Amino acid sequence: MSEVRHIVFDIGKVLIHYDPDLAFSGLIPDAAERKWFFENVCTPDWNIEQDRGRTWQEAEALLIEMHPAHEENIRGFRRHWHKMVPHAYDDSVEIMEGLIEAGHDVTMLTNFASDTFVEARRRFDFLNRPRGVTVSGDVRMIKPERGIYEHHVASFGLEPAASLFIDDSQKNVDGAIAAGWQAVLFTDAATLRKDLAARGIEA
Are residues 11 and 102 in the same domain? Predict the structure, then answer.
């Protein structure tokens, strides 16, 4: 195992909580109806295209044309986005900030729409602490596409084999490994501390 000189954090479900259900529990109170809406209207596949750089105006227009009866709830996805990210994971943030304070090179690589990331940065100041961030919506590539890992390496002068990526999605972890990085699957802060310790990094 190569020495780790660069530590790269994902954001959603690693540093901040994300759950669209929180925003829609008030908009669509019936759980079965809400489940149908997320599986057939505002689907994960639809939402990921905003992470790839599609504007919300384009995204909403596309769905409203297909599902005109659901216009208000379709617009509600962006309008109530702030309710989907109610809090940070303080224990994970503590690890990241501790690594920065100890002198480690820390950056972030995230699938995030450009405008909602600006909003998140205003709300969660710790997102301004790492050396930098690659936001998928800005570069129009998403994890686990190899190009976004290569873009991050080039942007921040990383050596892939000496870079450790932390992400809650196995496919994104696999994508980093395919790009020549080291990577670990995030499940909780205690496990992350053990994963870092296994690589000689105290957190």
Answer: yes
